[in-house]
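Quick one: structure tokens for this chain, please?
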Amino acid sequence: IESNQNHFPRTASALMDKNAIETRLLQEVKDHEEVDSWKFSQSRGFPHDDVIGVLNALQSRDFLQSKTSRLAVWSLSKQAEDVILKGSPEAETYCAVPTEGISLQDLQGVVGAETIKHGLSHCYKNNWLLVDKVSEDLKMIRQKVTSIEDLVKQQLEQFKESGCNPEKCDSAILKNLKRRKLVVSSSRTVFSIKSGPKFDLSRSDESLDAALTLGMIQDGSWETRNFKPYNFNARGQKIPYGCLHPLLKVRSEFRAILLEMGFEEMPTNQYVESSFWNFDSLFQPQQHPARDAHDTFFLKKPASSPLSHLDYAKRVKTMHEQGGDGSIGWRYNWSEDESRKNILRTHTTAVSARMLYKLAQGKFTPKKYFSIDRVFRNETMDSTHLAEFHQVEGFVADYDLSLGDLIGIIAKFFEKIGIPNVKFKPAYNPYTEPSMEVFGYSEATKTWMEVGNSGIFRPEMLRPMGFPEGVRVVAWGLSLERPTMIKYGFKNIRDLFGHKVDLRMVRQNPIARF
């Protein structure tokens, strides 16, 4: 047994087979000048793959050279082997019908449903059998001829005896056998082999298998050995590796930009939120359409969760029902049961609400936070909308912030992601006032497109949390998918995210740089 670090062990019999193939192949090339690898393997009884292995070894030493071509190889299917052994389905079906006839149900019980499926129609086509209607409910299958000749079996036997050579078979017969899936063709790579520059009938196994070892270096024997030349241009074996999805590449860039701008990242690992944090804490009324089942995913189990921070919840309730700090509220009866319902968060602003409440406790310190994570909405899916997507969100909390501060922060961020031209349009959001939609100019399409939303959080949201007078919070958000689609040229969001994604795209798309 021979082995080394880079090869699996090879048995002595394997080496003998290899030597036999090598000796025969070299002699064949000498006698005929050009040898077909497939015909050689079939005539000598060697596996074709083993012949190719020996050929590659001899080519590496310039003993042989070759050219490749494609060859159509024919073979019998498993069903054909059964036909040769037992006869064709139509012959089996005919032989199972007694002279007095038999019902279809009984015939199926004798030969089986699969044989009936393939054989009965051919029996009718060949006029071997007929159907005799005995009564309204009974039909008998009877023999129409006294004897038959199983041509299909004979054709397969002849094709097998010819070595499955299509040239020795009538084209119409071969076409019929192929249609019935009794013979199959496959394409095989074959080699036309000729002698190489260093062709020789005799050479030692030692020269072929010689590999540089530590012992050769130590005793100096490497100087007299004949080594196989190294091919430094050969491509190495492909190694399995992981790849970042385009969304994660763009997310990584956005995260680096926001950290560079002085923002801190919020924890977003909670997909399930109570309606209180997702809606009520943001001063969004409980009758708002966004809280309906056609827009939001509600959990069945657990359907609700207890409210924490009860004092804060009471202040939120008061603000919804009666208002405060100059607001008259929404003027409705706020329901705690509605507020306790569990949902899949519809926006990461629920995370911002939790962080703002935490920030408002104790002495206030100005902060800048951001988050990038997944949200869920019960939307109709099309080329630009999915039921789940990723939201990029940021806010700044400080004294006496204005709309000008918000515009400056947004303009700076979009400039850093490659959209230097932005403009703003007044909009409405339940929890920000004033609110603005953000539009960016695309140099690729030469059009303005909506790229985000923004605004200043309303006092009705901030005061129940406990923020002191004069503290304002400016916030903005955008989807992660829209800029990724623009960056990588996707026209359909389902080609970027979801079960239809081509994994080759994930491996082959370039890095994201803005």
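The longest strand covers residues 64-76.
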